[in-house]
Amino acid sequence: MNSTPGGEQIQADADDHGHVAVDVTTLDAELIEGPSVATPDVAEYALWLGDDSLILAQQLGAWISRAPELEEDVALGNVALDLIGHARSLLHYAGTASNRTEDDLAYWRTEPDFRSLHIVEQPNGDFAHTIARQFVVAHYLFELYSRLRASADATLAAIAAKAVKEVDYHRDHSNQWVLRLAHGTDESRRRMVTGLSDLWPYIEEVFRDDPLIDRLEGVAVRPSSLRPAFDAAIAPVLAEAELEIPRGFVASGGGRTGKHSEHLAFLLAEMQVLTRAHPGASW
Amino acid sequence: MTSPGDSATEIWPLWEVFVRSNRGLSHVHVGSLHAPDEILAVRNARDLYTRRSEGVSVWVVPAAAITTSDPDAKGAFFESPVGKNYRHASYYSKSEGVRHL
Lengths: 283, 101
Known about the structure:
The complex is a heterodimer of chains A (283) and B (101). Chain A is mainly alpha-helical and 283 residues long. Chain A is built from 13 helices and no strands. In chain A, helix 4 packs antiparallel against helix 8, helix 7 runs antiparallel to helix 8 (154-182) and helix 7 (127-148) crosses helix 9 (186-199). Mean pLDDT of chain A is 90; it is low at 1-24. Chain B has a domain at 12-67: Ubiquitin-like (UB roll) (Roll), CATH 3.10.20.
């Protein structure tokens, strides 16, 4: 293939790099092949989790080139890429129930058909707002995927097993930033406190048990069952940061039934515009 | 000319990153980055340099802690050894009568 002088060297360098494949657009084989077609209920559950990851990834992508430092652009971009990976797997699986692709689900549904939680559609705000959102969501996702690995549904269990290691790092990344912003300057601490208190009303919805969960015993993870572990995981970080758990009102939520805040429609418009303007285009 | 990290607007110091790609190999310098402290420097290094399974171990060193040779002293420091083969042991012939050399 390589006839140019030095071609072998290029190949050797590529081998040194491990698994480099910049054109990977397909999912892992275990997630595509096999008999796994989701039942309507399992598909709905996969859609919940997939939409959470997709919307959060879209939000984090907006930080690229705008984070406080170049290094943080990359860190948040990496987190977003991990989440896109989870979203692709989950939406692919959700689509098997209705013969739709992951792209059909991501780009061709409208706002009321999205099942994402309100917490992931909260605006990026300043860096502290984004870190507050990452802190809560990453800790929640870690507890969720840790338990979903034992799901009776083999595909969900496989997706969770892969995702849990990545969200473990997201958790660590946000922990580090909560500590630094809280113990940084007066200004950074003020912003961290504001970020947490602005976000806290949306946490209740994350741990709410919608009726679907009752029908998926052993397959889905009961959100309310994650709350004690979540509280126990964030407590030491907040204690070290000398931050108090905010008190205040609880937002109504409704994301799982397609009721969204004013933020989601704008986010979807930006995410979907290119695909809708050029249907079937690939790049 | 100032280097990154020197000016007042850049408050994050510069770190040099070394990655070991495999067990048994030594850590190799791969580049540099900015980070507020050593803990985030290791994490930034992971995000910038090891996302595609390039490494099994990462070191970060404050760039300020590295003492380098002076680029302007290149002539005196690294002068060519051409014509100075007396710097090699093979230049010298073995003396007769030295039995165990």
